[in-house]
């Protein structure tokens, strides 16, 4: 994809190479797998996971040393910042068209561990959005895992899709959708609550598609193969694909993010329509 030449963003922070300081959750082994399964491409579960994992890791710490970023890491940061700028432009335009004000979130790159208002997390969490501080957190090693362990095609637009999905969670926070979903989950069985979580995640995929539609219209930045990269990433993080890879069978009632087919379909619906009003994923479970 074409991405060079974007302006810098005051909402981007690169913490890679910085000492995390203090106590953090160690996310290796089975704990890391649990976090990845429950929280891949979503920020809503971080708050629920944090107290449980803190108890499991009581007394552990993961100190890191400060170091200078490599030239490749600097280039990676510039790319991530360029995508963030594109999300700011697109969602600013969409909100303005709907007589609303878009509140820009921050995006934090980190290595190994990070402290957030939603609690501590490690790279095993995958990219996530924290509604408490309205920030997206990413350790870029996730994308290598996505390719090597979950079979995603990779590529720069796969990364762009992930960022756009997490920004979609920010849009849901601003619009009140996330809070409404949590209210709807109260008193529901686990299976019913999971269906609501799936609807929230699929809507974030839809918003990623809407962003892609607008960005292509405004900037003409897509190149051949970009959409295929996004769809490959969406397929790799479907609940059915992850469960098949990890445990050899699927349990539909435990899905929290949607199947591979659903995730791809809602991304494409957003991309083709560019209409934020067509993203009522909750209608499918009413």
From TrEMBL:
Database matches in InterPro entries: Uncharacterised_pept_Zn_put
GO cellular component: membrane
Subcellular location: Membrane
Transmembrane annotation, as ranges: 21-41
Keyword Transmembrane: yes
Domain of life from the UniProt record: Bacteria
Keywords carried by this UniProt record: Membrane, Transmembrane, Transmembrane helix
Keyword Amino-acid biosynthesis attributed: no
Any Pfam family: Zn_peptidase
Regions annotated as coiled coil: none
Bilayer disposition of the protein: Single-pass membrane protein
Protein name as annotated: Metalloprotease
């Amino acid at each position: 994809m074409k991405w060079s030449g974007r302006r810098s963003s005051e909402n981007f922070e690169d913490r890679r190479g910085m000492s995390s300081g203090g106590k953090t959750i160690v996310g290796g082994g089975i704990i890391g797998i649990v976090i990845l399964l429950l929280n891949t491409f979503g920020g809503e579960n971080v708050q629920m996971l944090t107290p449980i994992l803190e108890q499991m890791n009581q007394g552990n710490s993961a100190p890191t040393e400060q170091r200078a970023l490599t030239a490749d890491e600097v280039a990676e940061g510039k790319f991530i910042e360029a995508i963030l700028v594109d999300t700011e432009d697109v969602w600013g335009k969409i909100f303005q068209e709907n007589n609303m004000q878009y509140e820009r979130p921050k995006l934090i790159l980190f290595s190994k561990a990070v402290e957030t208002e939603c609690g501590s997390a490690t790279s095993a969490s995958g990219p996530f959005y924290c509604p408490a501080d309205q920030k997206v957190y990413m350790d870029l090693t996730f994308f290598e895992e996505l390719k090597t362990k979950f079979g995603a095609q990779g590529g720069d637009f796969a990364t762009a899709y992930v960022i756009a999905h997490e920004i979609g969670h920010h849009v849901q926070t601003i619009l009140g959708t996330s809070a409404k979903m949590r209210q709807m989950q109260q008193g529901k069985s686990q299976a019913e609550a999971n269906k609501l979580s799936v609807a929230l995640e699929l809507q974030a995929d839809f918003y990623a598609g809407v962003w892609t539609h607008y960005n292509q219209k405004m900037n003409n930045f897509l190149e051949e193969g970009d959409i295929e990269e996004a769809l490959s990433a969406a397929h790799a993080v479907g609940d059915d694909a992850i469960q098949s890879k990890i445990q050899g069978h699927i349990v539909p009632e435990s899905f929290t993010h949607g199947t591979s087919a659903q995730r791809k379909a809602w991304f494409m619906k957003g991309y083709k329509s560019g209409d934020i009003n067509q993203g009522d994923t909750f209608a499918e479970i009413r």
